[in-house]
Amino acid sequence: MNVKQFRYSMDNFGYLIYGEKEAAIVDGGAVDALLTFIAENNLALKYVVNTHGHQDHTVGTQALLDRTDAQYLDNRTLRADGAVTLEDQTIRVYHTPGHTEDSISFHVEHFLIAGDTLFNGTVGNCFSGDLKGFYDSIKMLLALPDETIVYAGHDYVLDSIAFAKSVEPDNAGPDRFMETYDSAHVWSTLGEERKINPFLRFNEPAIVSYLEEKGLPVGTELERWESVMTL
Fold this sequence. Notes:
With 231 residues, the protein is of the alpha/beta class. Helix content is 35%, strand content 22%.
């Protein structure tokens, strides 16, 4: 399977998952660019899906359905089935609540399309109010291999790395990551995220010390997670 990133609006990303003949679109706001690529590569669009229900991620869905014969797979169906099949390849669907209750992530081969759950260098806002659920989602994603490529729903890299450096000024990871950052193709590996993302590093001594200096609870892992999410 291949995954291609499409930027739209200011900083949103949508994705095309495709094989030799078939394709699926995730968060298809870049309607014209997506359909042009599909036509130029003689692909058949089979599915249209979304990582969650926020309007900036669903903005292209109806246009794609109006202009193609693709099938829309709604959030409830995706969560119930736990997988989508494309050209005999399994795309795993993980329910990753936290940013929203309906947030899902797509995992195919070594690619993770994480929507607004996990960004490159940060995580999403907890609009659901369910910090424990968000913690469980992050822990589940952290169980994936280091070589997993993280594709996010937005390009927040510059602000995220600046924040990471302010929290952990002695950590060289963020500067190394920025040496290869390319706004035309934004990605990281999960291994890199473990080194640069303060919202995944809540057990690291430097982060714990930072939280203690702020007078925030650090007694348990969940408390450390909840504390780092208040920063």
